[in-house]
Design goal:
1 helix, elongated
């Protein structure tokens, strides 16, 4: 089981937050044949990571990363 989309999205979210750039993190699932999950990051109207196939997933969680420094 590979989770490259999760690692990529979370890494990008951390990078954006450190630079004070607000963005959204989404986590979705698809239960058609077997359970699958996908993560993607969005800035404004632009999907930055996880764009391919994201429309096949139902969003189960979203987190808005607001401006501010993180450690």
């Amino acid at each position: 089981w590979q989770s490259a989309c999760l690692v990529q999205s979370l890494t990008l979210m951390r990078m954006l937050r450190k630079r004070g750039i607000p963005a959204m993190f989404y986590l979705g699932v698809n239960k058609r044949d077997e359970m699958k999950a996908h993560a993607w990051s969005v800035y404004g109207d632009e999907i930055l990571t996880g764009k391919d196939g994201h429309e096949k997933f139902t969003v189960v969680s979203s987190i808005e990363m607001i401006l501010g420094e993180i450690e």
